[in-house]
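2024-03-11 09:14:02 DEBUG pipeline.ingest accepted 1 chain
2024-03-11 09:14:02 DEBUG pipeline.ingest length=119
2024-03-11 09:14:03 DEBUG pipeline.predict start
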Amino acid sequence: MNDYIAAFIVGGIICVIAQILMDKTKISPGRILVIYVTAGVILGALNIYDVVVEYGKAGATVPLVGFGFNLAKSVIKEVNEAGLLGAFTGGAKGSAGGITAAIIFGYMMAIIFDSKTKG
């Protein structure tokens, strides 16, 4: 049960920070997404985000910061195994499963539900 609470707290803090940025600044949501992924890459490359993932588990890996963290770790691993070429292939290999799942589930939802445009 403790893991669930830690995941809820870490994921909640990440979401609260994004909400505060949207409410209190003029930064667009798209730019906040880019900031989160970039922060995940930087923090992952510096091994700082490892501590957050160890404590928050899915609460730290599921949000976009976790995606950036996954990219950084995958590239580092691939560079260590394949050399410089790994800088180009590591991110694709490390994130392929998540991206594939997002595409498949997005497609399934598009089939099941009748989407409408805003306006």
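2024-03-11 09:14:41 DEBUG pipeline.report Residues 86-112 form the longest helix (27 residues).
2024-03-11 09:14:41 DEBUG pipeline.predict end
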